[in-house]
Design goal:
Blueprint lengths: L4 E8 L3 E9 L5 E10 L6 H4 L4 H20 L4 E6 L1 H5 L3 H12 L9 E2 L2 H12 L10 E6 L4 E4 L4 E4 L3 H7 L8 H21 L7 E5 L1 H11 L6 H4 L2 E4 H13 L2 H5 L12 H18 L4 E5 L3 H12 L3
Parallel strand pairs: 1-4, 4-5, 6-9, 9-11
Antiparallel strand pairs: 1-2, 2-3, 6-7, 7-8, 10-11
Length: about 325
Amino acid sequence: MATALRVAAVDCGTNSIRLLISELGPDGTPTEISRRNTIVRLGQGVDETGRLNPEAIERTRRALATYVDEMLRHKVARVRMVATSATRDASNREDFFAMTRELLGRVTPGAKAEVISGDEEAALSFAGATADIDPARGPFCVIDLGGGSTEFATPQSAISTQMGCVRLTERFMRSDPPTELELISARVFTRERLTEARSVVDFASIGTFVGCAGTFTTLSALTQGLDAYDPVCIHMSEIAFDDVRRTTATLRAQTSEQRAANPVILAGRADVIAAGSVIVEEIMDAVEQVSDQRSFVISEKDILDGIVAGLYSSSGS
């Protein structure tokens, strides 16, 4: 008789490190065992220095050690960890990889983080984010807005653009709240990156735009008026562009301290979500120029779910 297979996916981005432990039962049905998110700001200062900050590596090490302990408790058989924008850009990334090799080797000998391309990142995010959406709502474009980069993916095309909530905050939006001049500079930069995206992805052909990762999910929670961050209410929610704009305008007028006081905004996101809101607003403007789409569907599933599906597939399950 077949036994259940437990696997783990870890995604380490510019702002956060996240874990998904999943079990594939004998009948082929996956069950989520654990999903974690820890903001570690691995990409702190990378845009300016080109190096990973040793303190950021240590924050990430502590979070990953906790995740590894959880994997061992749940008897995980296979693990894959991907590292995205921050490590792609860092000259001292081997310090980071040595740390991951030491910790992940406790789960699977030889395992370590791997840097994936922006194209693979986009494809994995697409597979995860669209898993629960009615195919009739396609064609889909999945937008994965991270700390250092934003990926746009369809089944036919994908592009990773070098804009993210941490990158824009560190480069342009250093005042708290941001000044009008800082916002203008951030918008100009974002529009240039969106021109790159639109040269690859045809926004006019999209039936549903799917937003995933922390900026989008937090904007959904705020727009819905939730009292706390609730993944069940956020997953597959649909938020209208005009409602999102009201939310983003409020966020940018607040200080980081005021944002942090809102229980919907998780620790470590308050100082970068204003920059994330600029990116979202510019995406909405770009969509409205060529399409009659006026809403995002928000997915709590993302690259982690795509990684897990790949682990099951490669195991022959």
